[in-house]
């Protein structure tokens, strides 16, 4: 006779929270909960049941009260990025608009391949009270609602229609979030009645479990093919992406590059794979890159792309390389490894690079390496002049240089969207590994401050004596600033640089560069903005409990930054920068943007012809 397994009666919500609290991961030999807690805004769709369960676990799964659901998702994404995808946070929102607000942040996590667990309210499964508050009604499909929109931006999606389902659904969601290939947001819809329904769960379901990130061994034949191709290279180059850090392969990348003498360029996501002073770090590549990296990319004959999805900003919309350049794609994901007819090495970057080092015996011509280093030296001179504080209009670059010179090497820098990602990527000199978070996978305005809060939560757990530094423009600040208040409430100090250029200046620059007149980007050029009123960002920040000041120039900003470093709470520094002058003008490759084929404007027509004249270099996939 088989003994009946021991069970415990719990609601669906209670079982979800208890399960999450029992899941662990080992990081650097230390066992810690894989779920670091979560962010929540409660409503009628999640407060009575899930809220009750979270209250009972508030000491082990802290719930941070959000100000905006989208901001919660950004914070969760930044937290996961800081932990190199080895830990995640949940986000919980009520049914209806609360959940809908998470769509953008789920898309950001999906684009950046970041784990995030979304526990969202849903309509009643019984439908007895239908239609309920905030429910969308689709007349021909009563099962269809807002939560279905998350199918497109989730790596795992489920709607719980019976309490027993979580026995299968939760492990599947967790395994997805921790899988190096499928990593991304997991969405679980929780109907309001099902959250409170009970079930006799097996006690074994809640036993502690230690998870590990899978390392996929690359195929020996693919490694051998890569070595054979590398040995034919006269001008090899490595593109190091964000996957290098997620794999923990920084040391292996460095060893392989040094052993073979191969120049390394970085993507935006891989911006801190090497410190700026490393002799093989030739700089960032692509549209927001450096003259040095782009110069060698034009000549490289074999390109080893490691842990990158080869976004258009990396490849210059596939014009940055020789038409006959050969690519080797090292990536744990087949989809990324095989892009543009690359020779694939599908597997973990750490293992693959180690095998290339052991099996190589290849050395790049020293003349090629020296040529790359000479290009980098010229770029360093340009950056030094670009960030120099002088008698000229204040710029993003000067602000970046002032902070770069005064920060601690282990301070974490956060930026996103607008002009700042390009300026930070081009001008920031990396002082230590893994210290730069420029969100450009989804290029999402509003990530800066919310992401800074999430990054600071993670940093306070790992390196509490360091600072999180946020660069944001006035446009992103106005879009989403409320997590400045969150950082004050939770005592998670940030230093926020608000660089005010009077609107969406980088898009105004793109508008002008394509022959268009300034329109609806700068506040001064918005016809419907009939009352030109400036925002007092300092006063606004102070109203949320921060310390804040406004400075007139980058020299004063440097002094204010020292005060911010010494402060015990979030500190906001505001400075105006010029909307037209001071942009980094070098280091850009071609970037494909849609321009009008016909126009009544001669300047637009001329700009279109100029754009199309440079298309000849665009790689067609071979």
Automatic annotation (TrEMBL):
Residues 223-356 form the Thiamine pyrophosphate enzyme central domain. GO terms for cellular component: acetolactate synthase complex. Residues 39-134 form the Thiamine pyrophosphate enzyme N-terminal TPP-binding domain. Residues 438-573 form the Thiamine pyrophosphate enzyme TPP-binding domain. Residues 603-622 are annotated as: Disordered. This is 3D-(3,5/4)-trihydroxycyclohexane-1,2-dione hydrolase. InterPro entries: DHS-like_NAD/FAD-binding_dom (IPR029035), Myo_inos_IolD (IPR030817), THDP-binding (IPR029061), Thiamin_PyroP_enz_cen_dom (IPR012000), Thiamin_PyroP_enz_TPP-bd_dom (IPR012001), TPP-bd_CS (IPR000399), TPP_enz (IPR045229), TPP_enzyme_TPP-bd (IPR011766). Belongs to the TPP enzyme family. It holds the Pfam family TPP_enzyme_N. Keywords: Hydrolase, Thiamine pyrophosphate, Transferase. GO terms for molecular function: acetolactate synthase activity; flavin adenine dinucleotide binding; hydrolase activity, acting on acid carbon-carbon bonds, in ketonic substances; magnesium ion binding; thiamine pyrophosphate binding. GO terms for biological process: inositol catabolic process; isoleucine biosynthetic process; L-valine biosynthetic process. CDD domains: TPP_PYR_POX_like.
């Amino acid at each position: 006779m088989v003994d009946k397994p021991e069970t415990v009666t719990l609601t669906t919500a209670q079982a979800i929270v208890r399960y999450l609290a029992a899941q662990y991961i080992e990081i650097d030999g230390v066992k810690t909960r894989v779920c670091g807690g979560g962010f929540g805004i409660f409503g009628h769709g999640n407060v009575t049941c899930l809220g009750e369960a979270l209250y009972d676990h508030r000491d082990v799964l802290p719930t941070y009260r959000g100000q905006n659901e989208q901001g919660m998702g950004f914070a969760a994404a930044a937290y996961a990025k800081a932990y190199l995808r080895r830990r995640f946070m949940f986000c919980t929102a009520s049914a209806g608009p609360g959940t809908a607000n998470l769509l953008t942040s789920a898309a950001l996590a999906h684009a950046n391949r970041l784990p995030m667990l979304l526990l969202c309210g849903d309509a009643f499964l019984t439908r007895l009270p239908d239609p309920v508050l905030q429910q969308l009604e689709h007349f021909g499909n009563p099962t269809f609602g807002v939560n279905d929109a998350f199918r497109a931006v989730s790596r795992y999606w489920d709607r719980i229609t019976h309490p027993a389902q979580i026995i299968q659904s939760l492990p599947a969601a967790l395994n997805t979030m921790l899988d190096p290939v499928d990593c991304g947001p997991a969405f679980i819809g929780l109907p309001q009645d099902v959250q409170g329904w009970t079930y006799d769960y097996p006690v074994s379901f809640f036993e502690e479990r230690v998870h590990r990130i899978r390392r996929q061994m690359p195929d020996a034949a693919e490694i051998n093919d890569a070595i054979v191709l590398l040995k034919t290279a006269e001008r090899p180059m490595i593109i190091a992406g964000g996957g290098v850090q997620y794999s923990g392969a920084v040391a292996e990348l460095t060893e392989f590059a040094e052993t073979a003498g191969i120049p390394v360029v970085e993507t935006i996501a891989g911006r801190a794979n090497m410190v700026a002073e490393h002799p093989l770090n030739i700089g960032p590549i692509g549209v927001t890159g450096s003259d040095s990296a782009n110069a060698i990319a034009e000549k490289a004959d074999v390109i080893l792309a490691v842990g990158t999805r080869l976004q258009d900003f990396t490849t210059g919309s596939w014009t940055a390389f020789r038409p006959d350049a050969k690519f080797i794609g090292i990536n744990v994901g087949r989809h990324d490894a095989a892009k543009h007819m690359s020779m694939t090495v599908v597997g973990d970057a750490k293992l693959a690079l180690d095998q290339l080092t052991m099996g190589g015996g290849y050395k790049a011509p020293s003349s090629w390496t020296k040529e790359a280093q000479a290009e980098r030296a010229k770029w360093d001179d340009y950056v030094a002049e670009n960030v120099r504080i002088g008698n000229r209009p204040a710029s993003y670059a000067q602000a970046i240089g002032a902070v770069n010179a005064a920060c601690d090497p282990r301070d974490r820098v956060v930026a996103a969207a607008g002009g700042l990602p390009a300026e930070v990527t081009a001008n920031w000199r990396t002082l230590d590994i893994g210290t730069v978070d420029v969100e450009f996978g989804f290029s999402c305005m509003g990530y800066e401050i919310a992401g800074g809060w999430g990054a600071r939560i993670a940093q306070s757990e790992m390196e509490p004596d360091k600072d999180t530094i946020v660069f944001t423009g006035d446009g992103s600040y106005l879009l989403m600033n409320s997590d400045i208040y969150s950082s004050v409430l939770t005592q998670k100090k940030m230093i926020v640089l608000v660089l005010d250029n009077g609107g969406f200046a980088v898009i105004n620059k793109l508008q002008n560069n394509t022959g268009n007149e300034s329109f609806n980007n700068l506040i001064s050029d918005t016809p419907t903005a009939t009352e030109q009123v400036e925002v007092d960002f300092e006063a606004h920040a102070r109203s949320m409990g921060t310390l804040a000041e406004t400075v007139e120039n980058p020299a004063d900003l440097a002094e204010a930054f020292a005060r911010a470093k010494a402060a015990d709470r979030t500190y906001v520094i505001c400075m105006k920068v010029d909307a037209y002058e001071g942009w980094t003008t070098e280091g850009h490759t071609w970037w494909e943007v849609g321009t009008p084929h016909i126009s009544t404007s001669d300047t637009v027509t001329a700009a279109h012809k100029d754009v199309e004249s440079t298309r000849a270099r665009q790689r067609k996939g071979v």
